[in-house]
Design a protein that fits this description.
heterodimer, A: 133 residues, alpha/beta, Hypothetical Protein Ychn, Chain: A, five-stranded parallel β-sheet, B: 97 residues, 4 helices, 21% strand, globular
């Protein structure tokens, strides 16, 4: 019903599916990560269990200090910081991907969790749906 | 878990990172340019052979054939489109695009 509070439609635990968004592309060379972020926000509105996992060049999406005015596109990295308030609690970053790019956890936006390859494997295997971006 | 890989492992690290996350008992299906990972004699042959010790590797026959290849690394299994569908039905799929 229009105007009805989403909370009143909260799904039971059994109805919830586990969605994992796999972000593996750098932020401004393609539209993939922005598209992924939009889908994450849409799915979050449907009260599903959502995790976001960053690997390969996807870790560049979370780099602190992105200033995009010079390339005339919107800096969307700040949107990842507010995902928690949309019920998206876990942003996982692959440690090896980070190290391969000469980056450290402190180079990233706050609120993300840096995890090992083994932990990443575990997150991947426990999902109902994996959406690659 | 079935990882589906469609990029050439000779121009990107796609297959390499996928194999880092693939655990014992998982499967990898190579299709489109991913099938270059299945042919013998490339610089990634040793990587694929190592992976074959713990995971199953499949390659889509039609994509190999389209690219002029037929022979694959020992242990890599060829599948046709029906086989591809069968694998997708049997596994949770992680598309590694």
């Amino acid at each position: 019903m229009a105007g009805e509070d989403l909370n009143e439609e909260e799904r039971s635990e059994e109805d919830k599916k586990k969605f994992l968004f796999l972000m593996r592309k750098a932020p401004y060379g393609s539209i993939y990560p922005q598209g992924g972020l939009e889908v994450i926000l849409i799915m979050a509105a449907y009260d599903q269990t959502i995790s976001v996992l960053f690997a390969d060049d996807g870790v560049f999406c979370l780099k602190k200090g992105q200033e995009t005015a010079g390339i005339h596109v919107k800096d969307f990295s700040s949107a990842f910081k507010v995902l928690e308030s949309y019920g998206v609690e876990h942003l996982y970053v692959d440690k090896t991907s980070l190290e391969e790019r000469g980056m450290k956890p402190e180079d990233l936006l706050t609120g993300v969790e840096v995890v090992s390859s083994d932990e990443m494997s575990g997150f991947l295997s426990g999902q109902d749906v994996i959406l690659p971006f | 878990m079935l990882f589906t890989v469609n990029k050439s492992p000779l121009t990107s690290d796609n297959l390499k990172t996928c194999l880092r996350f693939a655990k014992k008992g998982n499967s990898v299906l190579l299709y489109e340019d991913g099938v270059y990972g299945a042919i013998p004699g490339t610089k990634v042959e040793s990587v694929v052979k190592e992976a074959l010790k713990s995971i199953e590797v499949f390659a889509l026959k039609e994509d190999l054939k389209a690219r002029g290849f037929g022979e694959v690394i020992d242990g890599v299994k060829l599948v046709d489109y029906a086989g591809f569908v069968g694998l997708v039905e049997e596994h949770n799929v992680c598309p590694w695009l």
